[in-house]
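Each field is set out as follows.
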Amino acid sequence: MPSSTSIGTDNAEHGHTAPGPRLSAGRTIPELLLGVGTAAVLSVLLQFAVAQLGIAEPSDAAEAWAVLGSTLILALLLYPLALGKRIGNGWGRLAGVWAGLTTLTTLLLSLPLQGTRFYYGGSSVDNAFRLQYLNRMAANLVPADMNYADVPPYYPWGWFWLGGRFANLIGWDGWAAYKPYALAWMAVVVVVAFTLWSLVLPREHALLAALVTMLAGTRHGLLEPYAWPSSAWLAPMAVLTWYALSGRGRAPRGVLLGVGVFVGFAAMTYTLNFGFAVLVTVAMAVVVGGTRVRGGAALGRTVWELFRRLVPIGVVSGLLALVVWAPFLLAGGLSESSAAQHYLPVGSAFLPLPFTEFSPFGVLCLCGLVWLVLRATSSRIAAALLVVTATVYVWFGLSTLALVSDTTLLSFRLRVVLECVLVVAGVLGLVELIGWLRGKLPKWYLPRLTAFSVVLALAGSLSVAQYQLDTGLESKVRAAYEDYYPTGHNAFGAEDPDEPDSWLDELASVISEMTGQRPQRNVVLSTNYSLPSFEPYWMFQQETPHYANPLGEHEQRATEIRRWSEADDSAELARMLVRNPFRAPDVFVLRHHSDTEETAERDDTAGDANPPAGKLALTLKSDVFPRNPNVRNYRVLFDRELFRGPEFTTREVGPYTVVVVR
């Protein structure tokens, strides 16, 4: 275990007192604000420029430009370091670093998407819910649940609420704003990571740490852009936490408050990272306290000193968390069961071992692991990052144990945190190795060593970037081009009437015409679950229980829907709708029978299956955890005659029947 009595500095300084951050609060806060502003504005401008390229797709031309641009920018960022030039604290050089990191990140990630309005993953699977949430926040200034009317939000809304304001600012719908907003955040994260690492590392090393953090993000982090900030920033904040807890003497209030703000930010944007950050903080306190007691310190005094340092972190993070969580908690959310954690993919069943990959990224992770183990007792940074690494594996173990209670801790989501820690550690280990070699080799070898180091860094970075562009993100890029816009066609211009989403535009127009209401005034029960991704309808039922708000009572709603299908006539159905315990749907969108398609007789069928003649079908999903996939589709069939009465009006739109309650 790392020793709190030999933390020292990374320049071989040793002592009991851990030094403070390299930058003062008066310097750090302006840097963060200016860096975020620069990255956000420059990224958006670059994206709009990229969108004007008009490169025909499918093609590899965009990827070729991405590789060329990345190579040039990486060379520009690394060349001054090779010459031994210092970044320093000058605003001009810092602005240059911010611009370089922003341009690199934005061009690398936006060029493959230059011909589509969708982000990586299109509007499919999990992205459907992300678009739905951003659509909701663009339509509602006051945070609200993505799906259910009159229910406080369950999933942290901080990132999505800001996205809604961004959409309002540029005058776009929420779904359309998701791509530029997410890409801007990818750039912001890297720039902020540079500043945070500058608190604990020399600027030049912080730049390298930010670069490899960005590369790690292309593997997993970009798929959840709302979780990526707290994932990427956790490593440098963990180092600051270690400083604050392991130091003797007066508590560093500024650092403790900063850690509290970070943990609170995690609570406002991604609950899992909030829980993990809390566990890491507690684990560090236990390691520091255990080491002190083993060294002869009094147990009571040690516990009291650490508790006093944990309190500011807890108070600040708790207050920030309540901004997002208070409405849900006050509504009794903790008393309701949730299926959100009922998911066990392969990535959670097996431990992540990125350092065993036969690739430049895997080698860098292996270097990081070796450096952490060798330097944990002499480097405060290695000590902190080793605790984070160990805690990731503890989380995996706890997640497996949670299966006893029929749930998980979604441990696969922490792979990105682990990889960020290991690649940064790998960079620091290689920097130390190069420094050691420079002291051992004859002087005439030094220019060759420098050149080799720069070429190695450039080649390794390009290897990771090119793999992601060519293979790692290929399916996500394909979905971004092939998924349908709400206009009824995709980025390739395809308009296939057999595709359910090709009818989205007409469905929205018909619903608006028949109800005479804005989308956010209607509650819709639809078998096409893409509708709320593009229009801010309130939905009577969430597509899957795993994204459903526990306060929305997903299973009770499903039971109610099945009961409606058993009504004897339209009058009874109308009475059921009025008397049901939830806000009743104003609109039904159901699948009707087609004579040109084969009738699907099975109940557990997909949503686009052809129902029997005289029936209208609604597809629902139930939780079948721990199976994978963790949902089962099943149909609820309504007799057409139930909607023939004066209580309803109907209209057919392609394969769908739209029913409006009068």
Remarks:
- The CA atoms of residues 545 and 555 lie 8 Å apart.
- The two ends are 69 Å apart (CA to CA).
- Residues 1-18 have pLDDT under 50 and may be disordered.
- The longest strand covers residues 615-623.
